[in-house]
Write a structure and sequence with these properties.
This protein is of the alpha+beta class. Helices cover 54% and strands 14% of the residues. It has three domains: 78 residues, Glutaredoxin (3-Layer(aba) Sandwich), CATH 3.40.30; 44 residues, no CATH class; 79 residues, Glutaredoxin (3-Layer(aba) Sandwich). Helix 1 crosses helix 9.
Length: 215
């Protein structure tokens, strides 16, 4: 059995990140005969300057990528289909908004210290992409934390205090210094990089190859 250390660098507002996570999880299940993995979620902000209240998703796509309303809808439909193929429901539409994710990353750091990081990450993705919730709102984040098996009152205290801001900033800078400029970025044993929301088959092939080399 090969034990792999996996750093999953991602943002909550990145649809390819949940697609990639589901693909990775399925690949690990398929290869559990030879691989045991320890996954840590690392912070990355696609929109670090996003103001309170967020911005409309379509407006961002048009301004940032030169897209159109029609092309944005086509891209969403494609992403929804890819997400559905790995068992995740996306409900994005023309009214969906993109929110600042920094406080959510602070909570994920805290959840890691409590052994509930994976559960919180899943709940955050579901809250944002399936339920359309504001993942920058502290009350909402407290409720999400409770669903992930964490103490919602303590979560509120973490958010109100600004705790773990320095740790998250340092982690973001570390991964950027290592060349990570897009997400999801899956770093295995600090040596191997798997980029993007790959399908389970691609992840499984890459992980088995890494396990064989490391073994």
């Amino acid at each position: 059995m090969n034990k792999l250390k996996i750093d999953f660098v991602s943002d909550i507002s990145c649809p390819w990140c949940i697609i990639g996570l589901r693909g990775l999880e399925e690949a690990l299940e398929r290869s559990r005969d030879v691989i045991e993995a320890d996954i840590s979620f690392q912070p990355f902000e696609l929109n670090p300057d996003m103001p309170a209240g967020g911005q409309n998703l379509v407006d961002i796509m048009i301004k940032k990528f030169g897209s159109t309303v029609e092309k944005s809808a086509e891209a969403r439909d494609m992403i929804k289909a890819r997400a559905a193929s790995v068992g995740f429901t996306m409900a994005m539409n023309d009214e969906s908004r993109v929110y600042n994710s920094f406080d959510a990353h602070r909570l994920l750091h805290w959840a890691g210290l409590r052994g509930r990081q994976h559960a919180l990450k899943q709940q955050l993705f579901r809250a944002y992409f399936t339920d359309g919730l504001d993942i920058s709102n502290h009350a909402t984040l407290g409720e999400i934390s409770g669903k992930a098996g964490l103490d919602s009152v303590e979560a509120g205290e973490v958010l109100a205090s600004g705790r773990y801001a320095d740790e998250v900033r340092a982690a973001e800078q570390l991964w950027q210094s290592r060349g990570i400029s897009s997400v999801p970025a899956i770093v295995v044993n600090d040596r191997y990089l798997i980029s993007g929301g790959q399908p389970p088959e691609a992840f499984e092939q890459a992980l088995r190859k890494i396990a064989a080399e490391e073994g």
